[in-house]
Write a structure and sequence with these properties.
Elements (H helix, E strand, L loop, with lengths): L10 E8 L9 E7 L4 H12 L8 E5 L4 E3 L6 H4 L6 E6 L1 E7 L5 E7 L4 H12 L7 E4 L25 E2 L46 H8 L7 H6 L6 H7 L20 E6 L13 H16 L7 H20 L1 H4 L9 H14 L3 H9 L3 E10 L7 E10 L2 E5 L11 E4 L4 E7 L4 E10 L2 E9 L2 H15 L9 H15 L5 H4 L15 H6 L2 H12 L7 H13 L7 E7 L6 E5 L3 E5 L6 E6 L3 E7 L4 E6 L3 E7 L4 H14 L12 H8 L4
Parallel strand pairs: 1-5, 6-10, 7-9
Antiparallel strand pairs: 1-2, 3-4, 3-5, 6-7, 8-10, 11-12, 11-17, 12-13, 13-14, 15-16, 16-17, 18-19, 18-24, 19-20, 20-21, 22-23, 23-24
Length: about 675
């Protein structure tokens, strides 16, 4: 019986359910509370009533109706808004989650369901030995993706799932606080408990990571490729609308997993969301590099990104002969030991270069000289009602503009036309076998995009002009330090494409134990027979046969980054004032409005020209203002507008990173740029 004095004028009963591990224990409790009782007091009163001795430190109160955690234990019930009709759940904050990694491997580990997703992903990456967690996020598997229409669907079986890597009992995933320094610049060496030798720096970037060396190698090296049958059963987007559905499930980084309806033992996808891979270091990033490679590989195999036949064969050669074969060989096991440089020695070397100041004459030369290109190129302008007009002109590239003249002698006068490339789209139009080296320029104009093609004579000319165009589109000139590396990267990719048929290589393609259908998309599997594919992949292999494993992966990633559609995430939107739907492509430095029917870009807006952006949460409309009084507004139809808002803010946040920051992240700045005010 409860005495009348206990029924104070302000007291009331609060219903709490306990998510108890012991099934026989009482799970529902009624607590007599007052509005001025703080959350910590409620938890204390509840634990006293439970009468079960156990560690309750990971437990917290979850408000089911409001879908929120009550984590501020000093707040009173009145301040939280909790009243007698509230139903609270006393449950653990860390729960088991199944994560499917980019390499299709599933890991099972404990994750904080009460932390915001940004923090949860940081803890997950710490467990998996992946640096730069800000580049990744969690994605819900696409449930409404249209299934492929096949007559054999009724009899088809689900592909057999592989073994799950269980990390549930690891220290880092059990809710214990991590080491004070998430990223250590000094990299304190960790020693193998059995042999006593220093463990590889690749394995021990995070000193408290639970990964054993064997588990780390599982994530750092590619597993055997799936069968062609399994590949055929996987969902492949056919249109831009299909691709837009792939990006609809990104979780809100500013809210917790529980707040977004994720339950214990659910499966989510861990993916690289932002395509700006900062400071890739083979010495420390074995897992990270492999997972980026795997995400790129599956994007190409499933045709989530388009590439030419020539490029597909290069990707196939890098997969078939280096990543797949070397990963299974003993050579891969020792790659981290090859030519490892002592960290102190490397630091002293860097310091010496810094103190010496490098070559000052080159620096002065870069400041005083304005680089320019001048050469004979052919100009191609597509015409709707006639053949393309191809004419040779004398071109001069200076700053971020291209001018062309009738001939070299007239270059001192006024140009026929001057093209400002700042903010334009630059698309390679190359076929090395056919000696075709073209640059497609989509230049923004008032009523859309002006399409212009430049035709070069050879690889070297193409690399110089292509690199200049790419930098100019970003508002940079050839004086920028990234120009020469960009030229070398383009030449390197062209060299991989420029293979010659080797009679020895293709004399017996069956002698190589491989299934070429596993390394190319279905489009090419249908186009060529297996022997033809094997022979063509062997041709492409001639230029990549001497690469070590890590270089092969990095070359694969670089080739992926050079594709025109790289880094674009698509969403179906309706622009303000428009009567039809369009596709919006979100990239690391720009937004692109794309015609949903033809796939042609209509307009490009650069982040560098953006003044501000905001969201009207009532009508779910994103509004963006750019320089020169340009403003746009749109509603998102294929996903929540918060996802696009977070994409824009996330890319701007990542652009502020630098190596001088000691690799610490300003999490508050991230949430200011991405969180919004709903």
């Amino acid at each position: 019986m409860i005495s009348s004095s206990e029924y104070g004028s302000h007291s009331w009963e609060l219903f709490v359910t306990v998510d108890h591990q012991c099934e026989e224990a009482q799970k529902e409790f009624l607590l007599r509370v007052t509005g001025d009782l703080h959350i910590g007091g409620v938890m204390l009163k509840l634990v006293e009533q439970i009468k079960t001795q156990q560690d309750w430190s990971d437990y917290a109160l979850w408000w089911e109706q409001k879908k929120c955690w009550l984590l501020k234990t000093h707040w009173t019930l009145d301040k939280c808004g909790v009243q007698a009709d509230a139903k609270l759940l006393f449950t653990t904050q860390h729960k088991i989650l199944r994560l499917r990694l980019p390499n299709m491997k599933t890991v099972r580990l404990k994750v904080s369901f009460s932390s915001v997703v940004f923090k949860a992903v940081s803890d997950i990456c710490k467990t998996l030995n992946i640096r730069r967690s800000e580049e990744l996020s969690l994605l819900k598997p696409s449930e409404d993706a249209p299934k492929k229409k096949k007559k054999k669907d009724k009899n088809s079986k689900e592909p057999v799932t592989e073994d799950i890597l269980n990390l549930c009992n690891s220290p880092a995933s059990s809710g214990l606080p991590g080491s004070p320094g998430l990223y250590s610049k000094t990299m304190t060496p960790t020693y193998d408990p059995i042999s006593g030798t220093p463990a590889s720096s690749t394995i021990t970037w995070f000193s408290d990571s639970p990964l054993t060396e064997q588990n780390c190698r599982t994530l750092a090296f590619s597993i055997a490729n799936c069968s062609a049958e399994t590949l055929a059963e996987m969902y492949q987007p056919r249109t831009l609308a299909d691709k837009a559905k792939l990006n609809a499930g990104w979780l809100d980084s500013s809210r917790s997993l529980m707040e977004q309806g994720i339950l214990e033992d659910d499966q989510l996808l861990l993916r690289f969301k932002y395509y700006t891979f900062f400071d890739l270091n083979p010495k420390y990033d074995a897992v990270r590099i492999n997972q980026i490679y795997e995400q790129a590989r599956w994007a190409i195999l499933l045709e989530e990104i388009d590439c030419t036949e020539e490029e597909m064969l290069i990707f196939a050669a890098l997969q078939a002969y280096h990543v797949s074969k070397l990963s299974l060989s003993s050579e891969a096991q020792d790659f981290t030991c090859e030519s490892e440089v002592d960290e102190v020695e490397a630091a002293l070397s860097n310091l010496e270069v810094t103190l010496e100041g490098g070559n000052t004459s080159n620096i002065l030369e870069d400041i005083t000289d304005i680089p320019k290109l001048a050469d004979n190129l052919r100009l191609v302008r597509p015409r709707k009602l006639s053949l393309k007009a191809i004419k040779p002109y004398w071109f001069v590239f200076k700053d971020t503009s291209v001018s062309y003249f009738k001939n070299q002698e007239s270059a001192q006068g006024e140009p026929i036309e001057k093209l400002n490339l700042k903010g334009c789209e630059v698309v390679p139009d190359v076929n090395v076998a056919a000696k075709k080296f073209g640059i497609k320029l989509l230049i923004p104009v008032a009523d859309g995009m002006n399409e212009v093609y430049l035709r070069c004579e050879n690889e070297n000319q193409y690399a110089r002009w292509m690199a200049a165009c790419v930098l100019a589109s970003k508002g940079k000139t050839m004086a920028d330090s990234s120009y020469h590396p960009e030229v070398q990267k383009i030449l390197s990719f062209l060299k991989m494409k420029n293979w010659t048929m080797s009679p020895q290589a293709v004399s017996d393609p069956e002698s190589i134990d491989m299934k070429p259908e596993c390394f190319v998309s279905l489009r090419y599997t249908k186009k060529y027979k297996s022997k033809q594919l094997a022979a063509r992949i062997l041709e492409a292999h001639q230029n990549v046969s001497q690469m070590p494993l890590v270089e092969a992966k990095l070359r694969f990633i670089q080739a992926w980054q050079s594709l025109p559609e790289f880094g674009l995430s698509y969403y179906i939107v309706r622009f303000k004032g428009s009567k039809k739907d369009d596709v919006l492509g979100v990239s690391y430095n720009r937004l692109i409005r794309i015609d949903i029917a033809t796939g042609d870009p209509i307009t490009t807006w650069r982040f560098s020209n953006m003044k501000q952006w905001n969201v009207n949460w009532e009508i779910r409309q994103v509004a963006i203002e750019f320089d020169q009084n340009v403003s746009i507004a749109f509603t998102c139809l294929s996903a929540d507008c918060k996802i696009i808002h977070e994409y824009i803010g996330g890319y701007i946040f990542l652009s502020t990173r630098s190596k001088d920051q000691n690799e610490t992240l300003d999490e508050d700045l991230f949430h200011k740029l991405t969180g919004g005010q709903e």
